[in-house]
Amino acid sequence: MAARFSCRSFRPKPVPRAIIERILKTAQMTASWCNSQPWRVEITSGAATQRFRELMYEAASSGKPSSGDFPFPREYTGVYLARRRESGFQLYNALGIERGDKAGYAKQALENYNLFGAPHVAIIHTDEALGTYGAIDCGGYVTSFMLAAQALGVATVPQAALAFHSDLVRQHFSLGDDRRVVCGISFGYPDREHKANSYRTNRADIADAVRFVGD
Fold first, then answer.
1. What angle do helix axes 78-95 and 102-110 make, rounded to 10 degrees?
2. N or C, which end of the chain is more exposed by having fewer CB within 10 Å?
3. pLDDT tens digits, 133-147
4. Which residues pair with 23 in a beta bridge?
5. Is 90 exceeded by the pLDDT of residue 198?
6. 140 with 31: CB under 8 angstroms?
């Protein structure tokens, strides 16, 4: 848990199928409401990753309107805004993007759709009928996937950005109309020399997140 970070530059070397299957086997143990296990996963490799990368990058760079299946945050305020800004400026500072350089911000944001150069992406989707709680269970799966990957030396980055164009994702992977795209996870071996991987985000103190009630 302490070693995991959101990797924003990957080496092109693919992850062996046996390693990916070990990650999936571990992640499948994730707890879910009534053991419903609502997650379904599409995993790309090789040319399939490149086709998806090109599709998503073209959609984002052309200004295609967002079409997410779940409501995006209405706004960030207070401590949530402060944390978001801090995280963003850590990335920009590491990359040498000057504060206020909106073109630089936008260019870096598009790297989400380049999958940060990852050789693989996992698309996580759930059943529409299970609603918000199906998505919550998928969130648990995403964490399990990332921790299992970390334990095997594989880096990850969870990406809500890939769910911004859920209609394209559904069409590309021939998913049914009842499937709801939660997020993507780009994964592979990290480029440890890249400046985007040189910093680590902070975490709030327990006292800022937890209230103990009773003795």
1. 90
2. C
3. 999 999 999 999 999
4. none
5. yes
6. yes
> Which value, in Å, is the radius of gyration of the alpha carbons in the chain?
18
**Contact yes or no for 184/123 (Cβ under 8 A):** yes
Q: How far is CA 185 from CA 3, 100, 135, 167, 214, in A?
A: 17, 29, 15, 18, 39
Would the pTM of this model clear 0.90, i.e. be above it?
yes
Name which of 125, 121, 162 is nearest 41 in CA terms.
125
38-57: pLDDT as tens digits: 999 999 999 999 999 999 99
- Residues contacting residue 210 through CB under 8 Å, at least 6 positions apart: none
Q: 181 with 125: CB under 8 angstroms?
A: yes
Write the CA distances from 104 to 107, 153, 169, integer angstroms: 5, 31, 27
Residues 6+ apart with CB under 8 A from 151: 26
Is pLDDT of 164 > 90? yes
Ramachandran area for residue 139 (φ above 0: left; ψ -120 to 50: alpha; else beta): alpha
CA-to-CA separations, 2 to 24, 150, 200, 202, in angstroms, rounded: 21, 10, 10, 11
Tell me the CA distances in angstroms from 3 to 74, 151, 157, 161, 207, one per residue in order: 31, 9, 13, 23, 22
